[in-house]
Amino acid sequence: MPVFSVYSSPTLLFRHLTDENPDDSFFQMHIHEQFEILYFVSGSAQCLVETSSYRMMPDTLMLMRPMESHRINILGREPYERYTINFSAELVDAVDPERSLLAPFYDRRLGEKNMYRASELDIHPHKLFSAMQPHTETESSRRTEILTYFFALLGQLGSAFAVKKGEPVPDRNTLANEIAGYINEHLFQELSLRIVADTFYISVSQLNRIFRNSTGFSVWDYVTGKRLAAARSRIREGMPATRAFAACGFNDYSSFYRLYLKKFGVTPKQDFEKKL
Fold first, then answer.
1. Residue 80 CA, distance from chain mean position
2. For the chain, which has fewer Cβ within 10 Å, the N-terminal or C-terminal residue?
3. How confident is the model at residue 240 (pLDDT cuts 50, 70, 90)?
4. Across the strands, what pairs with 37?
């Protein structure tokens, strides 16, 4: 996977990537504890966000908020080129304490109004992302350059969202969507496959089949992924891991520890100490 450009800091990750021969099996469903903006330049793909499916076209922007499950499905062999930005809310707080710039991420239901076309923005997104490519040598000037155009992009998305907010959304009254809604409403409470299945009067095998077909996740992988992302966010904000694991629905710390290490490649204590 050729990487044309990358900038990384604790609060911001900017990348320009291309897969010349994309392999669909490489792109798995995942959940971030940060926000993500994906700018699709070229290729043949669709983006699955929660229980919604979006057909990707050149110059498409996808917005995902923390704990919003998503996956790219590769549909052809064309080179897959994209820019991605992952960022924390703290990055925005410095200039927008009320977080109004995050309305396109937060002021909507999960899996709704994630997609934007270039025509919905006053400035073409390719100009903004190209301007974030490295043009300076020092770390401080590089960061300043990226943030200048990053906040301009957020402003553009905010204006587009103000229009999109009033538009109707496709009917998502499906069983998979109802299941996802129930899980997210009770995410940190007692949950089991049997509890969820009984709530919707179906068998556990039916539950997993319906949910996986719609989201790409098994029900329990979906629950665990969201709980882990939430726990990591709280730990990075300064909450001790011994409190965060219980607050996010885990009952056994040793199991939580193993899942956390496997998922993130670091221990809860290491993440906590980084924040400190």
1. 19
2. C
3. very high
4. 63, 85
* Greatest extent of the chain over all pairs of C-alpha atoms, in Å: 60
Q: Where are the alpha helices (DSSP H) in the chain?
A: 89-93, 103-106, 125-131, 139-164, 175-185, 193-199, 204-215, 219-236, 241-247, 253-264, 268-275
Cβ-contact 39, 82 below 8 angstroms: yes
Q: What is the CATH number of domain 175-275?
A: 1.10.10.60
Q: Which of 102, 117, 101 is nearest to 167 (CA)?
A: 117
The reported pTM is: 0.88
CATH of 3-164, one of 3.90.370.10, 2.60.120.280, 2.40.280.10, 3.40.50.2300: 2.60.120.280
In a 3-state reduction of DSSP, which class is residue 14? strand
* Tokens of residue 50, six digits: 């929660």
CA dist., res. 99 & res. 95, Å (int): 9
The chain-wide mean pLDDT, for the chain, equals 91
Return the sign of the alpha-carbon dihedral for residues 15, 17, 22, 23. negative
Q: How far is CA 41 from the centre of its chain?
A: 18
- The neighbouring-strand residues paired with 36 are 64, 86
CA distances from 175 to 22, 200, 225, 241 (A): 32, 8, 21, 35
Q: Which of 148, 145, 125, 124 is nearest to 134 (CA)?
A: 145
The CB density around residue 87, as the number of other CB atoms within 10 Å, is 20
> What residue ranges of the chain are covered by domains with CATH 2.60.120.280?
3-164
Residues listed for the chain: 276
pLDDT tier at 141, thresholds 50, 70, 90: confident
